[in-house]
Amino acid sequence: MILFLNFLLISVVTLSFTRTPRLSSPFGRHFRIENPPNRFKNSFIDVSKFNFSGECADVFSHPPNSDRDYIVGSYDFRSSCVPSMMWDSLTLARYSMRNAHIVLLLFSFPPQKCKHDLTRLAKLNIELQKVEKSSEEDAVIARYTYYDKFIDENYKNISRIVFIDPRDVAFFNDFFATFSENDIGWLIECFGPKAPEDCFGPYSFKLHAEWLEQFYSKEVEDDFVRRKLPAVNGGFGYGGVEKMKKVLQIYHENADKTIKLWGYDQALLNVLYYNGSFDEVGMKGVICEQKLCYIGRNSMEVKDKVIYYNNTQCSPVAMHKFNVKSTQWKLW
C-alpha cells in the first residue's frame, strides 16, 4: 500500500511548487516544481557555477526529465533520522530534475524524534512508499524485489528509471538528459578514467573478493582477481523501463532466494555482468565519465566551489559517493 503524505503536502509545501494534480499518478497528486529555488550551494560547492556549456553540454543528448521519469531508492531508517548527506543528495536530485518523480521505498519511517523529517521530505516532493522485509533480510537485498514490483505496478507511467542509493548520490544536472529509453547502464566502481588501476574490484578491495568466495566459490573469486575485473556497484543503475525490467528479470531468475545477506546483490550483479547474462539487453558498465563517476578521487577537482572532471573545464553530471582532496564536502 502506497503511503504518500497528502496531508503533509497540503499543509507544508511552501516552496515555489505549482500545485498541478496528476490524477493518473499512482502516488496521488504530484506537485510539479515550475520555478525551483536557487541551485544547491554550501560552504564548499556552488552548483550554479558548474560548467555545462559548450562542449561540456555534449553529454546532454536526450530529452530532459519529465513526469514519466523516475528516480527510485530504498532506505531503512531503523532508529535514525535522515542523515545530513542524504539531505544533500535528495536536494540536489530535486533541484536538478524538477519534473521527475523521486520515490523512496522505506522499510521503516524516521522515529518520532525526527518529526520534522517527513515535513522536509514533503517540501522536496519526495514520494514515500512503505515496504516490508523479514527481520533476517538485509535491506540492500530486499530492495531488488521491490524495484521489480515497483516497475510492474507503475509500468505504464514510466519511460526512464534510475535506481540509486539515496544516501550518497549527487545529481548536479539533469541525468535523464544523458540517456534514452533504449539505454541500460550500471556504475562501475572506478574513481578515475583508467581501468583497472583507478577501480575497486576483488583484486584491490578485499571485501569484494570475500563476497565472491562466500556466495559463489574460491574459483570464482580467483578468476575475478586474476582478470582484474572492476566491480559493478549495486547502488546506481539506469535505463529505459523495458530494458530495466529485463535486467531485473535476469537478476531474479539467477538469484538464490535463501541468501539474504549484505553483499550478495553486488556479488550476483558482478557474476551476471561478467559472464554475459546482461549482453542481450546491451548493458553498459560506466567507468568514470563526465556523465557519471564513483567517488572521483583520481578524476575530480574543486576550484572556486566548482567541480571539474578529469583536467577539463567540464563539471560532472552525477556522482555516486564523492571524496576528493580539494574540498571538505563529501558524500561518503
Automatic annotation (TrEMBL):
InterPro entries: Nucleotide-diphossugar_trans. It comes from the Eukaryota. Residues 1-18 form the signal peptide. The keyword Signal applies. SUPFAM superfamilies: Nucleotide-diphospho-sugar transferases. Keywords: Signal. This is Uncharacterized protein.
